[in-house]
Amino acid sequence: MDQQTVSQADTHATIDVPASTPSTGRITPARQAVIEILNGTRLALTHHEIERQARANGIRFDRVTLYRALDWLVANGIAHKVAAEDRVWRFNSARANQRYHAHFHCKECGTVHCVDFPNQEISIPLPADFKAERTEIMLRGTCASCAG
Q1: What whole-number distance in Å separates Cα of residue 92 and Cα of residue 70?
Q2: Which of 31, 37, 38, 80 has an alpha carbon 20 to 30 Å from 55's alpha carbon atom?
């Protein structure tokens, strides 16, 4: 799982992030580095994978800084956080104009891929007086690389 390369950039839309906002603070160099790493892949990445990619890009920051940057990005809707079956948090870039997307967890190699689908309302009947705030969809199976 950890031997994957994080250079699988494609043409998915990413969020334009302002340099600073009054309510959320500024984009620090560490936050910007993490945003660029997440924008450059369709995979949801672990802390370790993000740290390794940052080092490959010549960027070094300690783990506490990385954890804080990721927490800030998630809290501000710039990144998403998802846990796979191995109970390890993975992070991916929020997509511009993409309200819904799913994740695909490969049972063979452990990668978690982002899967976009058309913006549409997901309707699941809830008990009376329940209000859903977000929807998470995790598909499980075998990715194209592992399927052969």
Answers
A1: 10
A2: 80
pTM of full prediction above 0.85: no
Rounded CA separation 110/126 (Å): 32
β-pair type (138-141, 101-106): parallel
Contacts of 125 (CB under 8 A, 6+ apart): none
**123 pLDDT higher than 70:** yes
The whole-angstrom separation of Cα 94 and Cα 116 is: 11
Q: Is 60 exceeded by the pLDDT of residue 4?
A: no
Strand order, beta sheet including 138-141 = 43-44, 112-116, 101-106, 138-141
Tell which wins on pLDDT, 21 or 30: 30
Domain annotation for the chain: domains and CATH numbers: 25-147 (1.10.10.10)
Instruction: For tokens 């859903």, name the residue.
Output: 132
CB 35 within 8 A of CB 93: yes
